Amino acid sequence: MRSIARHPLLRRLVETVLTLFGVAVLVFTTLRAIPGDEITATLGTEAAGLSAEQQESLRAYYGLDKPLVLQFFSWLGNVLTGNLGFSRRAGATVGEMTANALPVTMELAVLATIVGLLIGVPLAMLSASRPNGVRDGFGQLVGLAALSVPNFLLGAALLTVISRYAHYNPNAQGFAHFTQDPLLNLQQMLFPALILGFGLAAPIMRTARSALLEVQTQDFVRTARGKGVAPWRLRVRHVLHNALNPIVTMTGIQFGYLLGGAVVVEQIFSVPGLGRQVLAGIQQKEYAVVQSTVLVIATTFVVVNLLTDLLYRVIDPRVRAA
After folding, report:
1. Residues 6+ apart with CB under 8 A from 243
2. Can you say whether the dihedral through the CA atoms of 12, 17, 22, 24 is positive or negative?
3. Where's the ABC transmembrane type-1 domain (predicted)?
């Protein structure tokens, strides 16, 4: 155990395995705590008219007659062998569904992150250039608005306005993947990315502002200013460059959140991503769909965090030397 604790990579791998196992247990138990099951979701009120023999037969068909512990490890064993389950509603395996939904969610998360960075970082630089001044007040106001307005409200309002007054709603058509029709795909992704990116800009702006204000007080910044370095070069090359670590951390966390936290926006704009897949699975009580999809989201989130750690070593030589 001591050798694992001393080796950063091994420690992270152990933490990753334990985290994913905890997520699997939590999702499994939470779904079983929700009233109803796949039988009642499929048959509705007709399930009440089934005889005891019919109910037992259906429970055996859906695998609900086994003890919960056995159900859990049976599902987990299938996942480890690449079998994520089957969706009777969609008539496809969860692996096939996830292979179609994951690129959509990743594309939306990347576009939203770009929008968030394009809004948040310039606002933070504007605010940090004049602390407690008019610029700072404007930046804080925009950040507060982005943090306060719910995504579902902003998304519904935007969709209503552009559909009613501009008569423009590319999402009303069937969803087009980027490889099928890049132009239509980007049009369909534009408004969801703007909504998510605006909400993402608030934590990025606050984090970047604090980091910039801290770096601005360092001796090397005063030295560079005394040498006559141009203001724009000073802010970008010296201040922003040395404030990247907290910004990268917050961006990585928010990117991971977008992988599973864009459920409402995906539903409003009819984007067939992972969040919408989970929502449909919950509504239909398809345990395998929800459990396996959430586990894929958690795995992707962990991988993003690992890549963020590796990025630290690229942008900060002090981390490489540690």
Report:
1. 208, 211, 212, 214, 215
2. positive
3. 102-308
Phi-psi region of 104 (alpha: psi -120 to 50; beta: other; left: phi over 0): alpha
**CB 93, CB 291: distance < 8 Å:** no
Question: 94-124 pLDDT, tens per residue?
Answer: 889 999 999 999 999 999 999 999 999 999 9
How far apart are alpha carbons 83 and 97 in whole angstroms?
A: 12
Non-local CB neighbours of 61 within 8 Å, separated by 6+ positions: none
CATH topology for the 95-321 domain? MetI-like fold (1.10.3720)
Q: Where in the chain is the domain with CATH 1.10.3720.10?
A: 95-321
Q: Please, what's the b/e burial string for 58-83 (b: 16 or more CB within 10 A of its CB; e: otherwise)?
A: beeebebeeeeeebbeebbeebeeee
End-to-end CA distance of the chain: 22
Q: Which residues are within 8 A (CB) of 189 and not within 5 positions of it... i.e. 6 or more apart?
A: 107, 108, 111, 271
SS3 169: coil
Closest-CA residue to 136 (of 182, 221, 205, 57): 205
- pTM (two decimals): 0.84
Q: Work out the number of other CB atoms within 10 angstroms of the CB of residue 19.
A: 15
